[in-house]
Amino acid sequence: NFQNNEKHIKLMIELENGKTIGMMAIDNIDWKNRTATSGYKISAPLEDRIKGDTRDALIGLLDYAFNELGLNCMYGQMLEDNQFSRKLSRKMPGKIEGVLRQRIFKNGVYKNLIVTSTLRDEFNAVFRPELVGTK
Predict the structure, then answer these.
(1) How many CB atoms lie within 10 A of CB 62?
(2) pLDDT tens across 51-98, in order?
């Protein structure tokens, strides 16, 4: 029932083999400050996946956010014990900005959130060097 609007964009991740494995999102778009949050949810079993599929989808999402929508900063949060997200984050440009202590109560335990951000120039320096320094 979701519809994209000026504050929220959700996109399905469909692989070359035709399988849909999850979704990506650009949320809380702030057009004045050119910021938004990014997120993803993968729901497919491993046998339906292709190595690097989430990384490729995230690169596509950030490229769209920075170089089509003109955003300058994308930020996100991940559970500190989410090893998949932490590994993916290490493969992307950007920085860990901090830890929000005990922000999520899950399975009877308070968990920390790690806050990350990527700037357009950081992303473009790695994935679109021909665009570095352009507006």
Answers:
(1) 25
(2) 888 899 999 999 999 999 999 999 999 999 999 999 999 999 999 999
